Automatic annotation (TrEMBL):
HAMAP family: MoaC_B (MF_01224_B)
Full protein name: Cyclic pyranopterin monophosphate synthase
Function of the protein: Catalyzes the conversion of (8S)-3',8-cyclo-7,8-dihydroguanosine 5'-triphosphate to cyclic pyranopterin monophosphate (cPMP).
Pathway: Cofactor biosynthesis; molybdopterin biosynthesis
Subunit organization: Homohexamer; trimer of dimers.
BP terms from Gene Ontology: Mo-molybdopterin cofactor biosynthetic process
UniProt KW keywords: Lyase, Molybdenum cofactor biosynthesis
Domain Molybdopterin cofactor biosynthesis C (MoaC): 13-147
Phosphoprotein among keywords: no
GO molecular function terms listed in the Swiss-Prot or TrEMBL record: cyclic pyranopterin monophosphate synthase activity
Record: active site: D125
Amino acid sequence: MLTHLDSQGRANMVDVTEKAVTSREAVAEARVRMLPETLQMIVAGGHPKGDVFAVARIAGIQAAKKTSDLIPLCHPLMLTSVKVELNAEGADTVHIVARCKLSGQTGVEMEALTAASVAALTIYDMCKAVDRAMVIEHVRLLEKLGGKSGHFVADEKGEAP
């Protein structure tokens, strides 16, 4: 059984020594709702701080690589791929999808979730001067492949089928 508690109930990092090395992948998403004018400015490339999507993409990739520095007890991983896609959705939303891959002994769910979250926070940071009412929402795992627990795909509500 995997747990973050040792035999004396103290928090520790899970020992993955005996787990097989397998191909693993995780996909997470986040959304940032904002004023339509804010999204128009981002899409048109008119933000005074530069290309918001490019900066958020880089921030998400960097965050995925540093997840073990941010999340206690998370394993440091050698990611083989991190992709962060950002797209306008409707008149007032940025949809972020982060995909992380590796070949290793533990999954990459936390890395994908961290990438999506930090990309969303970066959008907020870059745009807060023009839109303090932005909302970051729906940060969730969409899909997980590989490893002992198998394939997970979230339904529309974010629950396992």
